[in-house]
Amino acid sequence: MGRRWNEFDDWPSERRGKRFKGAVWPSVVAGLAVFYVFGIWTGAAIAHPRSSVVSYVPSPGNNNASQSSAASQGNSPLPGVADSNLVTNIYNQTKDSIFTITAVANQSGNSGAQEDIGTGFLINNQGDIATNAHVVGSAKTVDVTVGKTKYKGKVVSADQLDDLAIVHIDAPPSLKPLPLGTAKSLQPGNLVIAIGNPFELTASVSSGIVSGLNRSMSEQNNHVMNGMIQTDAPLNPGNSGGPLLNASGQVVGINTLIESPIEGSIGIGFAIPIDRLVALEQQLVSGKQIEHAWLGIEGMDIDSVMQNEMHLASDTGVYVTQVSKGGPAAKAGLRGDSNGSKLSSASQSDDPFKLLKGDGDIITGVDGQTVNTIEELTQVINGRQPGQVLDLTVLRNGSKTHVKVTLGTWPGQ
């Protein structure tokens, strides 16, 4: 069954610090596909490591010399006996540059304020701390604590779609920034370490491995994140914005999101690649707004079941259910399903294939590059800027055509 893609939902309150309540994404319901909306850089929901250091049993025939060499490159496999202190050493080297961030925000419709707690880490010698945008929320200032020392932090920037934020403090020279590595050299099975404040247990460390790379994840706000690092290092509420470190103590990701039916880790956590922060660092530190490209459609992945049910001309590609009124796709003449609006009021028992008419456009390529899924389309859009033109290859009523779309800026920016 195809997956649906919706848009413009608000950030879920469950993402915020210790308020996390469980699964980040909407569940897939029988007969109803999961719906995304095409925008671009998406924010991450919350992420959170848990307080425990995992002890690994060495594999038979492990070569300590080769392990040390791999560790020096930041791509260590599971540590053996000779590396039993590796996690401890990295923790001791980095913990003084990792902070508890407490943001207080007034909640509309409620009396009193909500206190949200997350994690952040120092990225330069000027006192700039990286964290998640959902940790700081709408706050202009936050409390920043390390050990018994407390600072007043100024929120310099908060990019909700990337879920990245910068907090500035007057840092003494004794505070050292964490070294930033890259997620590009990671491989499944590499050791990773997470440090943060799960359930307000400050300066907690957990470790695990890279479980997968280049994951595309959707959240309740229906933005799509591409290139995510999947890890089994336990992540729990309170570690949002904390560093994911490699075996050399370099930051390779920012813990930001978990998938779980409960309020806690089940071993499926995700981190934003540190490369995204590095690419945007100068803009974020200077307080400049990050612009995100927007296509303005709602769509579904096509598979063989959907093709047969709806008698479509292709069994792959992105089926356009709706185009946003006045959006870039609508202005370019892209066509949605004439019954697409019925999906927004559909119940769980409704069969989306019977609701749709089947006359919507099917996107099969962008700028000559084949597109089979929503994730592939969002990866292309995520790499572009507002104002750039996309040449979409489209199947319309069984015939191939091309639609040129000038990407807009994500609404609300």
TrEMBL record:
A Pfam family: Trypsin_2
Transmembrane segments: 23-47
Keyword Membrane: yes
Mitochondrion keyword on record: no
Ranges for domain PDZ: 293-398
InterPro entries hit by this protein: Chloro_Bact_Ser_Proteases, PDZ, PDZ_sf, Peptidase_S1_PA, Peptidase_S1C
SMART domains for the chain: PDZ
Biased composition (Polar residues): 338-350
Domain of life: Bacteria
Positions of the UniProt region annotated as Disordered: 329-350
Keywords: Hydrolase, Membrane, Protease, Serine protease, Transmembrane, Transmembrane helix
Name under which the protein is recorded: Trypsin-like peptidase domain-containing protein
